[in-house]
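Page 47, continued from p. 46.
Same chain as before, 191 aa.
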Amino acid sequence: MKRKEKAAVDEFVALVGGKTWEPVRHKCMGKWSSGMTDYGFVIDGRITLFVSNSMAYFKKRIREWIKSIHTFEAKKDCYLRLLREQIEKDNDKAKDEKLNPVRLIDIGILSPESNSPFDFFAPYVLVEINGRRFKHRTAELSCAIMVDSLGGYLEECNCKDIYTARAVRTPDYIFCGVRFDSRDNMYKIGK
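Result:
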């Protein structure tokens, strides 16, 4: 790893509250990936983040992550306003279906308590439903926040009919036009 890549990782790790990091690399297995290597790093000996399978894009990817965090911090109030408006619409629909209302508490982009590389650095919405507080997360919502297109994502959600998320058997709330169950461990960070 060259000096510029190391500097980018140093900046990212400091930004997410980490103290140390170690580079990791693994040879890709399989016919399609012969000769390729996956590159990443481990933060504080517990969170392994995959970055790319080529050092050519390593620094660029880290810089994109840093930019996403800065954009999130700068636009957090705007995102909260958009989500409050959406939750108001969702709660009206939930009332019609006799489902629980959602209370928005906060939003975030880091979950340092998580040991999962998929949840550690992923946007979420901290909600309360029927007395239960948790970090609600879907891939679509996370992506919309990471690429700063939350407004467009919410518009799209409102153009569709309400539906139940996959594998949800007994929904009890609606979020972004989708029914979820606050009692299961799906679509959540942590328990």
